[in-house]
Amino acid sequence: MNVSTNPHKDILIIGGGIIGCSTAYQLTRHPSFSSVTTTIKVIEASKHGPAQGASGKAGGLVAKWAYPKELVAVSFAEHVKLAQEHNGQDRWGWRFVRCGSWEGKGAVLDEDAEFGDGVGAGGQRKSLEKTLGLGEGTVHKNDPASRKRKGLPDDLLWVDESLTHTYSPMAGDGDTAQVHPLLFTNSMMELAAEKGAQLISGRAIELNISDGVVTGVDIIHNDSGKSETLRATHVILAAGAWSPSLLESLPISSTRAHSITIHPQPSVDIAPYVLFTEISLPGRRGLTVSPEIYARPGNEVYACGPGDDSFLPKNVDDVTIDEAACESIWKHVCGISPELRAGTVNKRQACFLPIVETGGGPIVGAASNIAQGLIIATGHTCWGICNAPGTAKALSELVMDGKIQCANLQRLHPSNYL
């Protein structure tokens, strides 16, 4: 995985999402980093700054049971370390949460209500496959001697017990945590900037490769519209679903996901749970929906629906929101929670998740078969927030030391996909 032994490094990171910003942070914290010998520039296509795609609109779940295991083993520990070093509890909402599977029925909110299925218009339903990492035997069964018949925890009061069929913990205490993804991503960029990393608002349009070596990136600046060639000894392609626009051979597709955020009434105490639900819709025999619901600090609740295969726009700023999909998610979660029903929807949003078309992934490592100095970091699916610190640590080692030492990521190597 050797990339370069050049003592002076000009590093361009394409993509100001969680992977790109975390990588900038980890590079500036590497023992060999010096602002005299190393420049770091993060190129972000959005006019609104970092985390405008999936990195700012995800649920922010961090779990030991996520996948791939190679990255999770490094990432979870890094999340804990980052929160301790930079007051993540206050800065980006870091905390441990309980995670469970809830099954039940939705209440009738309105006799004429159209519930929908939460899938955005213009695309077919796609699973986000978030629970694949759990595997068999991970669910912890309730102890009948110490729990209520349905398994509901005593403090999970913001779901209607009368509508609950069963509740089962999905992971043990300390195995699941969360961050606010927008705050976390921006914090990583801010902390990197304190050490000299630079954020550039512009769109990367072409990789410059000469004699099998990456030499730079052509960009168009958002403010002036002027084009410029930025030189580089290393280019890290971390543009998520948009990565194939710069490297067509990348087997990356996209899944659009809609979500909403809800602010319950100030008097309501929302216990820190993440729920993976299975809700039978009233009057719709056989039709079930499966929104994910995340209680967050600051009296906020995040909920997302299924994915769809809607067409990916050219720029993250052009992502469209299907209001009907967001309304369906709202009705689904309101149907099992009077506390959320009495709250206010604060945000309705959509984003595109990068998916490795051939399965597996993400793709992480040096693409030396294409060009020396070119590094790929994309295809993290819904686990980008969770696995960003581990990915970033691995890439910082790859650039600064010439090889990845924190984990064996050979299964994720670009040569397996390109």
Task: Give the helices and strands, then pairings.
Blueprint: E1 9-14, H1 18-28, E2 38-44, H2 54-57, E3 61-63, H3 69-86, H4 88-91, E4 95-96, E5 98-105, E6 125-126, E7 164-169, E8 176-178, H5 181-194, E9 198-210, E10 213-221, E11 227-231, E12 234-237, E13 252-263, E14 273-280, E15 288-289, E16 292-296, E17 300-308, H6 323-334, H7 338-341, E18 344-356, E19 363-366, E20 374-378, H8 384-401
Parallel strand pairs: 1-2, 1-12, 2-9, 5-14, 12-20
Antiparallel strand pairs: 3-8, 4-8, 5-7, 6-17, 9-10, 10-11, 13-17, 13-18, 14-15, 14-16, 16-17, 19-20
Helix pairs in contact: 1-5, 1-8, 3-8
Could you characterize what this model shows?
This protein is of the alpha+beta class. Helix content is 20%, strand content 30%. It is built from eight helices and 20 strands. The chain has helices at residues 18-28, 54-57, 69-86, 88-91, 181-194, 323-334, 338-341, 384-401; strands at residues 9-14, 38-44, 61-63, 95-96, 98-105, 125-126, 164-169, 176-178, 198-210, 213-221, 227-231, 234-237, 252-263, 273-280, 288-289, 292-296, 300-308, 344-356, 363-366, 374-378. Strands 5, 6, 7, 13, 14, 15, 16, 17 and 18 form a nine-stranded mixed β-sheet that branches. An eight-stranded mixed β-sheet has the order 11-10-9-2-1-12-20-19. Strand 19 and strand 20 (374-378) form a beta hairpin. Helix 1 packs parallel to helix 5 and helix 3 (69-86) crosses helix 8. The protein is elongated.
